[in-house]
């Protein structure tokens, strides 16, 4: 990549550091060691790589769930943020091309009336989703018959909704669902997918030079293997580098 234009550096790191918004409830994006507090994952590696190119320190700005990050869109709390692309979100922030994509499916219990992805959208079915997450936004637009139950993001709320009979299925990315399934006897992740969720880097509106540099950065780290290596190190299931044809 060419050197960083001064205006781009000023827009991306106005405080002399790169403040990076992270959704802590999504283990595809970031995970945290509860003992040491250390964070790691694809977004941490990419955030650090961008900070290094800008010549500034990396600072993680941690949000509990998607709701908290979305509420910060108009606040001066972060310089870039990692989250799933969605057309509704694109009205409020500027997205890079997607760097990573992940299959989304359903977690169900053995007794669930939902036996396949294709049969989830039927009358009488309740599908739980993390509130204001990419699954929530997508399914709220596309489901015709099933009911959507919105929950706080995170593993506990999803498992509780299923085991207490509040929902017939829980929608999330397939990697997280595989982690959830390990905690509930008889639970399984349905084969197939109801969509592919594409993850990108958001910047605030009105920072054209900064967003252009981030777009070029994403193209570069996809091409040079940085994203693929980060996905492999994180051990993510049913997750891959986004193709060039999937730009939002």
Secondary structure layout plus pairing:
Layout: H1 6-12, E1 18-23, E2 31-32, E3 39-40, H2 42-54, E4 58-63, H3 66-71, E5 80-84, E6 93-95, E7 100-108, E8 126-130, H4 134-142, E9 147-151, H5 155-163, E10 169-173, H6 174-181, E11 188-189, E12 195-204, H7 208-223, H8 226-234, E13 239-241
Parallel strand pairs: 1-4, 1-5, 8-9, 8-10
Antiparallel strand pairs: 2-3, 5-12, 6-12, 7-10, 7-11, 7-12, 7-13
Helix pairs in contact: 1-7
Task: Summarize the structure in short.
The protein has 248 residues and is an alpha/beta fold. It contains eight helices and 13 strands. Helices cover 31% and strands 25% of the residues.
Give a structural overview.
- The mean pLDDT is 95.
- Helix 1 packs across helix 7.
- It is elongated, with a radius of gyration of 18 Å.
- Strands 1, 4, 5, 6, 7, 8, 9, 10, 11, 12 and 13 form an eleven-stranded mixed beta sheet that branches. Strands 2-3 form a two-stranded antiparallel sheet.
- It has helices at 6-12, 42-54, 66-71, 134-142, 155-163, 174-181, 208-223, 226-234, and strands at residues 18-23, 31-32, 39-40, 58-63, 80-84, 93-95, 100-108, 126-130, 147-151, 169-173, 188-189, 195-204, 239-241.
- Strand 2 and strand 3 form a beta hairpin.
- The protein is 31% helix and 25% strand.
């Amino acid at each position: 990549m060419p050197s960083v234009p001064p205006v781009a550096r000023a827009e991306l790191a106005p405080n002399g550091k790169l403040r990076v918004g992270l959704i802590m409830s999504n283990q595809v994006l970031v995970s945290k060691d509860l003992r040491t507090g250390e964070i790691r994952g694809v977004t941490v590696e990419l955030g650090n790589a961008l900070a290094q190119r800008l010549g500034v320190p990396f600072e993680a700005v941690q949000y509990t769930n998607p709701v908290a990050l979305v509420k910060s869109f108009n606040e001066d709390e972060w310089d870039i943020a990692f989250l799933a692309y969605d057309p509704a979100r694109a009205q409020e922030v500027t997205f890079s091309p997607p760097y990573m994509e992940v299959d989304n499916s359903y977690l169900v219990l053995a007794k669930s009336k939902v036996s396949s992805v294709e049969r989830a959208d039927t009358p009488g079915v309740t599908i739980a989703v993390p509130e204001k997450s990419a699954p929530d936004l997508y399914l709220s637009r596309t489901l015709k018959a099933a009911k959507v139950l919105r929950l706080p993001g995170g593993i506990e709320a999803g498992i509780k909704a299923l085991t207490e009979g509040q929902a017939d299925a829980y929608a999330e990315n397939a990697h997280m669902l595989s982690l959830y399934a390990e905690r509930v006897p008889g639970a399984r992740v349905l084969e197939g997918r109801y969509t592919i969720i594409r993850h990108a880097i958001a910047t605030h509106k009105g920072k054209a030079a900064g967003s252009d540099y981030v777009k070029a950065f994403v193209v570069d780290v996809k091409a040079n293997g940085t994203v693929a290596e980060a996905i492999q190190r994180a051990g993510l299931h049913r997750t891959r580098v986004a193709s060039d044809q999937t730009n939002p």
